[in-house]
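Researcher: For the record, we're logging two predictions in this thread. I'll number them. Prediction 1 follows.
Model: Prediction 1, sequence and structure:
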Amino acid sequence: MNDSNKKFLSFFDVFIFVVFINSVFIIDVVKHDNSRYYLALLMSLTAPFLVIIAFRLKPVWFAVLSFFILIIALIYDVQLLEYRNYVNVSTWSTILDSYIDEAQEFAKGMHSKTFGLMLFQIAVYIIFLIKSFRLKFIVFSKKIRRIALVLLLLLVVDFTFKGASRKSFPFRGLYGLGDYIVTKYRESRVLNKKASYDYETVRLPEFDAYQKETIVIVIGESLRRDHLEYYGYPLPTTPLMKRENLIVYTDVVSAANQTINTLKRVFTPVEDLDDKAYWDKPSFITTFKDAGFKTFWITNQYVYGRHESQASFIAHETDRFISNRPNNYDEVLIPELKKVLRDTARKKLIFLHLMGNHAYYKNRYPETFNYFHPEKITDKKEKMIRYYDNAVRYNDYVLYNFLQLLKQQKGERTFIMFSDHGESLYDAYPDYAYHGTEKPSKSEVEVPLILWFSGEFKNHHPGIVEQVKNNKDLPVISYDFYHAIPGLFGIRFKDYKPENDFFSKSYVPKRKRKIINVNLELLEYDKLK
């Protein structure tokens, strides 16, 4: 076999290698049957050849560089086949921030077809790598190399301006990795700055330093309180939790009608529009750590992204951050909570951040929870509401399972659930559901707040429990959580304001509760429709 044949075969090998590495992406493109996806596929298949031609890469160097592309391909396989999602910034966070035991558990739960495809792609790469040591590429003229370089630059320009190449493989994954690196850098700067702030935390003596304590705080998503059965909703959306001995707060509104704008005001001393305190001071999570608690954040939300990063900065103040890939049903957090509850720390504060009732509602529950049968309803709006109610009923199941796990623990136990914001089901505008509107309805900010105390907590702190019950009908806005949640557990710190602690005798309700809309404008809650 002459040398020219070897050169020809080496390019053929590249083509075979590229096709198998792109196999899952090719299947996804065919499913979409969209011109932009086909263009993205063309870019994915031609980019390796352009790189080889433009830079006169030797086969061995191309194979070595392709190892990183193989890694992205394997991740891509998992995301598309296991989660029907793409490689993005949250994917990289899940991979790079996870503990080894979490990775091992995930590998055990992977479907055999995904695992088999990954092994096959690895085998193809190894064969290609071995061949690369003895094959050569055709060397092209300077003119052709310049043309290849120009085409590569066009791909980069298209990628930069969010064209088809951003959808292509591996650019989509590389973009997410770049976002992750930038976000982690910003996060480290934010957290380092916050870590230097001293809250001068003390704890009231009635809380025994040796007493075992477990606090579970669930952050719901897009859950409006008037669709909960224990708030008077006529349909059976909360059959499990309504049986529990809950303290139900009846007049709580969120600080904003979007997640991050609310959570910044729940966890840090930010009020109204000035969010400087969010960047300068740690969240109230730090006060619990100062008081001897080990803290955990378990999330089923996106971790990093255009809107999620600032929430993740709060979450990463905890001692341990556990992320599940988003768009799973929230019940995936049940075994995660079970594992965390087995932690030997005497005092634990655990946050569970749900996907909850986030749009699209029919994607938030398994088919077994299709209780209200929206598919049988012809009216578009009524159908959407029934999808939402199914999601609420599933949320009830998830919360109930969290609470049952907590009940199995020893010592003082507390369960708290609130939602980041509510939801408009055609309340704000006659043709609009969801949230984040410019002129929100009250339903977008009216949220549930429920508490459950164990017998041990009630016996040790009867006055606190009684006061919590006495205050349950007072008007509350969620930026007072920053004072009330630590205050409930006897934690005092230099920014604590007793008049903002709605669980205490000292609480002074706001005369006017002002919420923030999508345009970052302050609106009076009482004037919303």
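Researcher: Logged. Prediction 2.
Model: Prediction 2, sequence and structure:
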Amino acid sequence: MKKPILAAALLLSLVAGSLASSPALAVDSTPPQPAQATETADASTAGAQTPGTGTATPSPSATTAESPQPAESVAPAPSEPALPFVAPSPSVTPSPAVTHAPSVTPSPAVTPAPAPVVVKGAIGVKWQAMRGAAGVLGAPVANEVCGAGLCGQTFKGGTMYWTAATGAHPVLLTAGHTGPYWYANGRGKVFGYPVTDEVAVPGGTVQKMSTGRLITWSGNGAYQVWLRGAIGSHWNTLGAVSALGLPQSRETCGQRNGGCYQKFAKGYIYWSPASGARAVRPGNYAKWVGVGGLPGALGYPVSSETCGQPAGGCIQRFQGGAIYWSAGSGNWVTKGGIGARYAAAGSTRSGLGYPTANEKCIPGQCIQSFQSGYIGWSTTGGTRIYSMTECAKLNNGRSRYSTYGANRVLLTFTQGYRQAYATNVYCVRVAGLYVADWKTDGYVGASGFKAPGVPSGPTRNLYSPTGSYSVTEAFGLGNPGTQLPYRTLNPRSRWGGNPWTATYNKYFESSSWVGWDENMWYFATRASHDYRQGVVINYNRPNIVQDAGFAIFLHMNKVPTAGCISLDDWAVVDYIKKSRPGDRIIMGTYGALFR
């Protein structure tokens, strides 16, 4: 084959003459497969990678270490030589010679007429369809040159190439958008010859070249996509322009763990040897970058965005977590211990629903909210799922009463006035959000709650007050282990119930039981053991209003009370063990407490 190839190359070089600004490929060897061109004039960066057996590998180029290229990702080298891909010189135009008439006119010399430049065959048909010399290609500046199945002809405005398989297609030097990029970034040595015209697509134009490189143009400039590489192949598989739009950057390699990425109008495609090529669309991309992006905890995407989840949602998995989306929740990230617990619970198919925020952390604690609950994490307790309760109203501004920054808040409420049966939700703050440690039933005053701002009055009226009250001390027959100041009761323990006395609504000790004073020892030791363990609710304390009400406690013996809150024994003990000075109890009807 060498002699025919050599003859074709010599013929092409003779025909190209002074128009050839770059030499023909050497005929002694198979032309090298072009490397991925870049958006720089020296075409020095490489393209994406072609997956081998389901996983893409980068393709090294002789001119860059940016994206290595495996042998299996390169199309077989053509057996015939390519034509010299040269830029026509617009300044080279035949012009008539200028002569000066001498005083004596000699006989004119006889010179041979120059060979005419003609446009014929398939190239001629295409040229005529483009309005011939009046069109964007203009007049021919050289005759057609052919060799081993490829023909080319240069014109003032570009070059036309033809093969039997692809037909005739021009590369426009100035009139098009993709042609100037082809000329400036390596021409045929990098891109090969065109196999399509430059065609319009949404947002710009594209032109495909014989090496599998697609030159694209949009308002953001001209870039290429290597359709035989991993990124370009994935872009094409997803739907190309209709799916992700045109590229907005060159393919950039040298990323974490040897990866590459390319930006498109509607998202990004990232590739690494371990993860393959995956697209990240704008909504997920913003959340991904918000938690550190590629260098962060999530790392590379390992799946495409998969929709058809419950409630029409979508999920995209990354090396270190996932991003979930639904119309009702938006895009949010799960990762680490919380993400693992969510996945183990069934993720979107669990009772938690979709995440509604990214996790929030403080030293030693993290919390993440979901549509129907929370997942918390701590260095001491690991992960825990919390159901959605009225504690959420302390987070979203729907509580009418302040927690004053308390880390623990007991919510006690009835469904209406003149009701004693109450719901009790013990809210604890994890990483700044209140979640339910437990929820149980109980009772308040037998007459129910007074309205906000209305004193509960004497205990004999059996009303409970409405409001947010601090907790600063506990009492009972023996300390169960609490950080509250604890008072161990004795036979002289009393609580003042007589207005306009020094002991009103205070603890004191006496051997007698006078008027409306409460004998705490009696209530602690009788069979119903009301005060075996209890907590003082600071209603009408420390600024005491006479006859406004007294002895409002949280205590045992779960029955309607004279104004206190009564719970099961286990709940009272657990509350005391976990309480700290400054914790609060918010109590009242549901409508009085919540917006």
